[in-house]
Amino acid sequence: MTDPAGRDAGPLDPARGAGVSFPGNRGLAEGDAAVPAFWRGLGLPGLADVHVHFLPPRLLRRIWAYFDAAGPLVGTEWPIRYRWSDAERVAYLGRLGVRAFSALAYPHRPGMAADLNRWTLDFARNTPGCLPSATFFPEPDASGYVAEALAAGARVFKVHVQVGGFPPTDEALDAVWGLLADAGVPVVVHAGHAPVGTAHTGPEPFAAVLARHPALRAVVAHLGAPDYRAFLDLAEAYEGVRLDTTMAFTPFLDRLVPFPDDERPRLRELGLAGKVLLGSDFPNIPYPYADQLAGLARLDLGDDWLRAVCWGNAAALFDLA
Ligand SMILES: [Zn+2]
Q1: How far is CA 36 from CA 44, 198, 293, in A?
Q2: Structural domains of the chain, with CATH
Q3: Could you list which residues have their CB under 5 Å from ion ligand 1?
Q4: Rounded to whole angstroms, how far apart are CA atoms 55 and 217?
Q5: How far apart are the CA of 284 and the centre of ligand 1, in A?
Q6: What are φ and ψ of residue 128, in 5° steps?
Q7: From the CA of 304, how far away is ligand 1's center (Å)?
Q8: What is the pLDDT along the chain (321 residues), one digit of tens a residue?
Q9: Cβ atoms < 10 Å from Cβ of 130
Q10: For residue 66, how far is its CA from the centre of ligand 1 (angstroms)?
């Protein structure tokens, strides 16, 4: 099988499941060589990536196994490319020039989030460039541990409506949305149907949250794929709503849920207004990191737009030096 970028994708076998090997001598993996030249050419100090995953290693291995098996919530062949140790992935982000990044963890059942937050906040304390990141799940102690995470310095949250299988309007989350709105701390929300919709994904349930908490600073993951138009509407309607580019415009996602060409003007306006941020889903992607940047560049929305999306908008949101 050959993917749309023309690379030989190969069958889903153990060798392929192993991903690419970690390059020695400060090198970059196949496909990523042009990344540093990309941001240098734009005159940027590097990249800011709001959608990066770091999780406790045992949990991350289970997630990779789920992707390997193309589980029901994945729905398509999805060989993880960067299945390296935490230290290798941190080093690699540095080589790519990703100067600021999140460590998004997310629970798939109750009773996990508080432990995940201890892990991710500790990880950020020991990892230069990593934004202190936290998560939550609808459960009785959610507002308690979210308040604790905020007090401990959390600067970005993640909530995964698709994997979590809960409605974002769940009553147990109402106080959490309120806490985040009051604190002005952004939350990356996987609210869209992609890659496989559930009963609670899509624009409507999350629009109901925004109607109740209009000051919420939300970053809609994957540009809301596949409901790009409706999520662009929300970003226009609410001052606090932003979008991350995660996986959008890559050959991989274009094949499944392409972004509508006629929405490029709105995407340009929103990007220049601070509302579109680079996200990648590193390391849980089945293609080179460079594909994300190449996809953004191919949109041909101008260098100012690329500078805003790849650095400036996150620098403003997170007060990066
Ligand atoms: Zn993700």
Answers
A1: 10, 38, 11
A2: 35-318 (3.20.20.140)
A3: 281
A4: 23
A5: 7
A6: -55, 135
A7: 26
A8: 223 233 333 333 333 456 899 998 899 999 999 999 999 999 999 999 999 999 999 999 999 988 888 877 787 888 899 999 999 999 999 999 999 999 999 999 999 999 999 999 999 999 999 999 999 999 999 999 999 999 999 999 999 988 888 899 999 999 999 999 999 999 999 988 888 788 888 899 999 999 999 999 999 999 999 999 999 999 999 999 999 999 999 999 999 999 999 999 999 999 999 999 999 999 999 999 999 999 999 999 999 999 999 999 999 999 997
A9: 21
A10: 14
**CA distance to 4, 11, 30, 36, per residue, from 244 (Å):** 23, 30, 25, 21
* Phi, psi for 101 (deg, rounded to 5): -155, 155
pTM: 0.92
Measured in Å, residue 281 CA sits from the centre of ligand 1 at 5
Given a contact cutoff of 8 angstroms between Cβ atoms, the answer to whether 276 and 270 are in contact is yes
172 Cα: distance to centroid of ligand 1 (angstroms): 23
Q: How far is the CA of 71 from the centre of ligand 1 (A)?
A: 15
Distance 314 CA to ligand 1 centre (A): 17
Q: CA distances (Å), 39 to each of 2, 83, 134, 294, 304, in order?
A: 29, 25, 28, 11, 12
Tell me the C-alpha distance between 285 and 80, whole Å. Answer: 5
How many whole angstroms from 247 Cα to the centroid of ligand 1?
A: 9
Closest C-alpha among 310, 311, 286 to residue 296: 310
Q: Give residue 53 CA to ligand 1 midpoint distance, Å.
A: 7
Q: How many helices (H) and strands (E) does the chain have?
A: 15, 8
Ligand 1 centroid to Cα of residue 104, in Å, is 7
The answer to whether 222 touches 249, Cβ cutoff 8 Å, is: no
Phi first, then psi: give them for residue 120, nearest 5 degrees. -70, -35
Ligand 1 geometric centre to CA of 280 (Å): 8
